[in-house]
Amino acid sequence: MVVTAHPLASQVGEAVLRRGGNAVDAAVAVQFALAVVYPDAGNIGGGGFLVLRQRDGTAAALDYREKAPAAAHRDMYLDPNKEVVEDLSRKGHLAAGVPGTVDGMVQAHQQYGSLPWPELVQPAIDLARRGFPLTQKEARKLNRERKDFLRYNTRQPTFFLKDHWREGDTVRLADLARTLERIRDKGRAGFYEGPTADLLAAEMKRGGGLITKADLAAYRSVWRTPLTGTVGPYKVISMPPPSSGGIALLQLLTIAQHYPLPEWGWNSVPAAHLMIEAERRVYADRARHLGDPDFYQVPVAGLLDTAYIRRRMHGYSPTRATDSDDVYPGVPAPPESPHTTHYSIVDAQGNAVSVTTTLNSNFGSKVFVGGAGFLLNNEMDDFSVKPGYPNAFGLVGEEANAIAPGKRMLSSMTPTILEKDGKLFMVVGSMGGSTIITTVYQIIQNVTRFGFTMQGAISAGRFHHQWLPDWVLCEWGALGPGTGLALWLRGHKIAPKYGGIGRAAGILVLPDGRLEGGADPRGDDTAAGF
Q1: Which of 247, 452, 458, 476 is 20 to 30 Å from 406 at the Cα level?
Q2: What range defines the domain where residue 43 resides?
Q3: Residue 390 above 90 pLDDT?
């Protein structure tokens, strides 16, 4: 089974599995297909994380997160008065980090792939060259971003600048097809060297960006040890730093297991209140302690220590909200001497892959590489551009996530795999910036504590709190009017979130061995299996 954010990408992944490819083969093909049909987040100009569980239970984690260019520095988005220049880290050429996606896919395929590389890239080339029909949601997004495309591009991407796109319109991407052909034929060198690297460097020079050919040549993705933890009967396998997702998810699940959520009921007043209070404390820890482990000693063991996690709930009141101004990051034990889309895949042999990949904001920096046809990320905004200053998702950060040359920026991406009784149980992840962690958390709780199906768990209404700003984002209908009023009376500030929170993709292994896919109705997400 394959679950992705776009029906055509799901079809590409399913076709690879039908040909006998494994989960990593399908992941590679899906990644490149999403770069064509889902350009607001699917990409070759961004980065991501991959978590793998093989059928024998061994696990691996691949970090292909973007990196700061060599010329980057901690004050690069500040004016002479040390104040943040609005939007400089979010839009335009200076917002882009060195892309990691292509190197990540090459590394994953070299380590675990089984089908020939060209066969996995070719479906994306076919989609780009022959064209594909726009969904209603994708047409709407292209229309909405048209002004930024015009403003931030040195060479206008005419293939995306139609006056008004409609559902069913065909998009053909000849420049992107040529770029993908170079990747098909030369692998890593087809992107980080040669004509594509020349085009990217030229785009940076025209637009005042920092990425150079030397930055591209130096980029390497990194295999990291997955984070694992036991919560009740489940083993959780997730992404370590520079993702904050794995640590935050394990903290939230550990807190929740000590409370009778099933007795309280799904999204009931006491259950929602507890989850919000836990999220408030966990996101405070995220702001202080999380960053790139190659540059900062992240106290992973201390943050995941059960006693520490339980201490973080000191001061929790079951009847009253905590003011976020009164919540501070904890002091864990020191370390011992480490717009986004998600897809989930399980192959016929039982290998599982959970992948979250991103350009950061919708369509990233809004900048297309002239002549190469792909969008660049705006991941530099995921650094702490100034201590305490919120990024595009309202998240604040401190020294652990300060800008430095060659450093990977902190992420909320949370690709996750669960085992139960030593067997594969669930593959799950989500898009959604800072809401990714709480989305994955709630989906897991929905299945493991409240008995939802996979589709039901993903379709169910969601809410989110991230310490600062001090309000609860809530989808329409996620909390009934009585629950919302009761939480408000306890001191929670509730704000409606129109358009949904997160977009998840999940696969659940049923007791009889069949697979149930969960595709998020908030988008065009599709499950495809056989």
Answers
A1: 247
A2: 2-223+365-385
A3: no
